[in-house]
Amino acid sequence: MARPKAFDEEQALEGALNLFWAKGYEATSIQDLVDGLGVNRQSLYDTFGGKEALYHAALKRYCLQATAPLIRHLRGPAPLRKALRHLFHDTLEHLFSEGHPCFLAQAALERVEVDPGAKGFVNHGFRDARGLFVERIIRAQSEGEVGPHHDPEALAYFLHNALQGLQITARAGASRADLEAVVRVTLSVLG
Q1: What is the DSSP string of the chain?
Q2: How far apart are CA 50 and CA 177, in angstroms?
Q3: Which residue, among 53, 31, 28, has the nearest Cα to 40 in the 3D structure?
Q4: Which pLDDT band holds residue 5 (cuts at 50, 70, 90)?
Q5: Mean pLDDT along residues 39-55
Q6: Is 60 exceeded by the pLDDT of residue 4?
Q7: Overall CATH class of domain 9-188
Q8: In angstroms, rounded to a whole number, what is the distance separating the alpha carbons of residues 145 and 191?
Q9: Whether pLDDT at 99 is above 80
Q10: CB 38 within 8 A of CB 63
Q11: Which of 16-20, 34-38, 98-102 has the lowest mean pLDDT?
């Protein structure tokens, strides 16, 4: 008879996500995971597979969590400019309080060239995020907030790129004032 697991899988996965997010894939060793999650090495392999499989599971979990703020801002009742201002503001708050960018942005920089699985999660997560932007831009156009001359797909790409770029630039040491200026310029594109 198989022994019951001595740890909570969901809690361990959340812990792994936080370790990978804080340190990056390469800098997180299996021993870091064993120590940080309080799980023995064999249980870790039996439950999640190797380090890369655990990383993919963490990316999947993050993708499910990461859309919540976008949905809250972009599907909410606020006018588009105000919703975007709040979204960018919340992103800056996270960056300056937590000190690390979006886990997908980090994965895009660190893993997509060498890890097709990570590339798939990043592309899927970014596509979902852009879809929320497109949906909101179309709504804004129908409500007269944004002119019909804007291509919703292109504008969504631009706004999502600006959001991701803020995170990477913050990681490189940009000041909050500089990033707030970027947000102002970004929002000025809406007219």
Answers
A1: -PPPPSS-HHHHHHHHHHHHHHH-TTT--HHHHHHHHT--HHHHHHHH-SHHHHHHHHHHHHHHHHHHHHHHHHSSSS-HHHHHHHHHHHHHHHHHHH----HHHHHHHHTTTT-HHHHHHHHHHHHHHHHHHHHHHHHHHHTTSS-TTS-HHHHHHHHHHHHHHHHHHHHTT--HHHHHHHHHHHHHTT-
A2: 42
A3: 31
A4: low
A5: 92
A6: no
A7: mainly alpha
A8: 9
A9: no
A10: no
A11: 98-102
Six token digits for residue 71: 């949905």
Amino acid at 117: G
Tokens of 186: 């970004």
- Check the CA dihedral 159-119-25-6 and report its sign: positive
Structure tokens at 157: 């790409």
Q: Which residues of 84-97 are buried (b: 16+ CB within 10 A; e: fewer)?
A: bbebbeebbebbee
| Contact between residue 52 and residue 117 where contact means Cβ atoms under 8 Å apart | yes
Res 29: pLDDT? 96
For the chain, report the end-to-end CA distance as a whole number of angstroms. Answer: 67
Q: What is the pLDDT of residue 58?
A: 96
pLDDT of residue 98: 79
Segment 158-179 mean pLDDT: 94
The residue type found at 152 is: P
**Average pLDDT for 72-80:** 96
